[in-house]
Amino acid sequence: MKAACVHTQGPASNLQVEDFQTPTPGPGEILVRVACSALNPIDVYLRAGTIPMPVPKPFIPGSDYAGVVEAVGQGVTLFKVGDRVWGSNQGLLGRQGTLAEYVCTHEQWAYPAPAGVEDSVLAASALTGITAHLAVFDAGQLHKGQRLFVTGGTGGVGSFVVQMARIAGAEVITTAGSPEKAAQCKAWGATHVINHRTENLKDKLAELVAQKPLDVWIETQREPNFDLMVASMAPGGRMVLIAGRAARPEFPVGPFYVKGLTLTGFAMFNSPADRQAEAAREVGQWLAQKKLQVAIGATYPLDQAAEAHAFLEANTLGMAGKLSGKVVVRVS
Known about the structure:
Distance between the termini: 11 Å
Number of domains: 2
Helix content: 25-40%
CATH class of the largest domain: Alpha Beta
Order of helices and strands: EEEHEEEEHEHEHEHEHEHEHEHE
CATH topology of the largest domain: Quinone Oxidoreductase, Chain A, domain 1
CATH superfamily of the largest domain: Medium-chain alcohol dehydrogenases, catalytic domain
Number of helices: 9
Radius of gyration: 20 Å
Largest sheet: 7 strands, mixed
Strand content: 25-35%
């Protein structure tokens, strides 16, 4: 099979497409012929070697996939050959990833593909959709009528958070970097969108929360402003961090505990497989029902995986601002 890999972790230019032996599914595993993969910041970090997690050598990055079951291992009960599936959690914790024509995955990390939903959409909805669902409903405990803020409403996770909060009947405030992106956020259900390039976030948010503070804050940026967050929260509010591995911000302890706030650090791959599967099932249902729209900002073929990684890196770490939605790699 063909796969994009790195022999040495480092820049995107280290990615190259090579021939690998097609893996054989072991007990409880399925072999998936990958149609589409999708890129996430964690894939960039692992390719670059900037976070401490074991990787095989050579390493095939990529967490997300959508495709068709090609073979099943001993004891598999959830799937059969020919089933369309999608999922995440590959390319992590020592596992090979999905920038390949085939991937072996344990059946617990695979989900039935909903009818009528394209592979590109499913791949683009895997890690980010599951992350958003768990962040909003598990960590954030969002309920109807509450108020939620999320940074980056057209980002990979942010776009799902905006829409899921709207589905839940909550009011949504978010940020965007252009009038076009702000319009997209409102089309997805955001009530208020702050243009972080032309408006002062602190002042604008203070106006919005003066009468009704926030119940949930989902922070997707790498440098959280805890003074702003705590000042914006209602008593008993929940703040959820899903980024910022190297951040060391100041923290307003007094206002935080006086308000009875909670702060949760959340990484999707730490969640139990059964809980991720429950979230994926609901995400799949919403996709099939057209309640969720998925923004795909760029699509590359497998032989341009290095360019795809470079583009995502420029728009996450580099803050280039040229990406709205997910980067998808079409494998077959």
